[in-house]
Amino acid sequence: MGDMGQGLQQAFSAITWVALVEAALVVAAAVLLIFVIQKLVPGLAGKLGGKARLYLLASVPLARLLIIVVTIIVVVPILVEPSFENMVAIFGALGLALGFAFKDYANSLIAGIVTLYEMPYRPGDWIEVDGKYGEVRSIGTRAAEIVTPDDTVIIIPHGRLWNTLIANGNDGSDNLMCVAEFHLAPNHDVRRVMALLRDVGFASPYTKTMKPVVVVVANKTWGMTYRLKAYPLEPRDQFRFISDLTARGSEVLAADGVQFVSVPVAASV
């Protein structure tokens, strides 16, 4: 510890007011640039659709990380003579400070860097973490923000990566499968119902028709359950899409004389 303290004293002994002002100006410019990117790029992405929107949103955290790294590279030589001994002293002290004073923050910070590298989720992805489902609005250095279908913003620290299962609905693409369920009484023409529901899937104005529309049926003790699986044009349309499929499917099946059944509480849990 004594050697490290002496190294730090030597490293910062040559700092002048001019150097401090130069470093402050560089940091201020970097902060301003990050602020502009975080405001302009999501606004521009919101006017686009498909993969272009997802690519623009994903570029924000990467651009921020790049700006931070470049700022550090520029500022350190301004303040400290970039010798090997000085760098060892500075980064050693920084590591100790993060380790003891900011353990949880450092954990999330490291996980944030891992997130930008592995990309388990990106802005525009629909993810579920600890039972909370929503769209990733932004990815910060320490945490990600998701917006739920009820328009609630939830902050998820990146440190949750280490011990939590994360479900990603579209994984960086504009393809997100949606499912509409129908619980029907037995004693009906199964193939006809499957054909009717498949037609319903293709008839919806929200359906991405170049993707498959699939109907899966399962026999239950209380009746039969049908799952109509299809993809909306945009992941953001998923709830309107499921509602449209449910409404259209219910109308078609009722017109064909198919009876619906209520699922017992024990079976729905």
Automatic annotation (TrEMBL):
Report if keyword Cell membrane is assigned.
yes
Q: Where is it localised? A: Cell inner membrane; Membrane
Q: Which residues form the signal peptide?
A: none
Instruction: List, in alphabetical order, the Gene Ontology terms for molecular function in this entry.
Output: mechanosensitive monoatomic ion channel activity
InterPro entries in UniProt: LSM_dom_sf, MS_channel_1st, MscS_archaea/bacteria_type, MscS_beta-dom_sf, MscS_channel_2nd
Q: Name one GO cellular component term.
A: plasma membrane
Q: Which Pfam families match?
A: MS_channel_1st, MS_channel_2nd
**Which positions fall inside the Mechanosensitive ion channel transmembrane helices 2/3 domain?**
63-103
The main place the protein resides is membrane
Keywords recorded for this protein, A-Z: Cell inner membrane, Cell membrane, Ion channel, Ion transport, Membrane, Transmembrane, Transmembrane helix, Transport
Segments crossing the lipid bilayer = 12-35, 55-80, 86-102
Asked if Transmembrane is a keyword of the record, the answer is yes
Function noted in UniProt: Mechanosensitive channel that participates in the regulation of osmotic pressure changes within the cell, opening in response to stretch forces in the membrane lipid bilayer, without the need for other proteins. Contributes to normal resistance to hypoosmotic shock. Forms an ion channel of 1.0 nanosiemens conductance with a slight preference for anions.
Quaternary organization: Homoheptamer.
Protein name as annotated: Small-conductance mechanosensitive channel
Gene source species: Marinobacter pelagius
